[in-house]
Amino acid sequence: MFVVIAGLALGLIKANANEFLVNIGDGFAQAGWLCSLIGFIAMLHGSVDLTVKELGPAPGIATLSILYGYILKIVTMYSINVTRTLKGLNRSGAARLFRVADVSSDSFINRVQ
């Protein structure tokens, strides 16, 4: 939850409003690292003689925020690609979407020759 809130905040702080989703995606990744750092500091706070048994699964839990941050960044990057693709579509946009060549007779004959 902190990754989402901090990622949105870090993304909204950036000045370039034209790249809104890119900024939020970068904010998610940065928030993941920040949360992981906070988790490691909290885990090691006040423990001088720490053994592996005492640590338990805490390092794995602390690194999960990095994974969550990058998963959210991938989701925003995917939504950017979908949005850009849909914005580029018009009545003849399906040909660009599926990379279908222009099959009009003149252009086809010119390509063959």
State the domain count: 1
Describe the main β-sheet briefly: none
Spell out the helices and strands N to C: HHHHHH
Query: Helicity range of the residues?
Result: over 70%
Q: Determine the oligomeric state from the structure.
A: single chain
Q: Outline, from the CA principal axes?
A: elongated
Q: Report the average pLDDT across residues.
A: 75
Estimated share of beta-strand residues: under 5%
Tell me about this structure:
- There is one protein chain.
- The chain is mostly helical.
- The chain has one domain (2-112).
- It has helices spanning 2-13, 20-44, 52-55, 58-88, 93-97, 105-112.
- The mean pLDDT is 75.
SSE layout and pairings?
Elements: H1 2-13, H2 20-44, H3 52-55, H4 58-88, H5 93-97, H6 105-112
Helix pairs in contact: 1-2, 2-4
Provide a brief overview of the structure.
With 113 residues, this protein is mainly alpha-helical. It has helices at 2-13, 20-44, 52-55, 58-88, 93-97, 105-112.
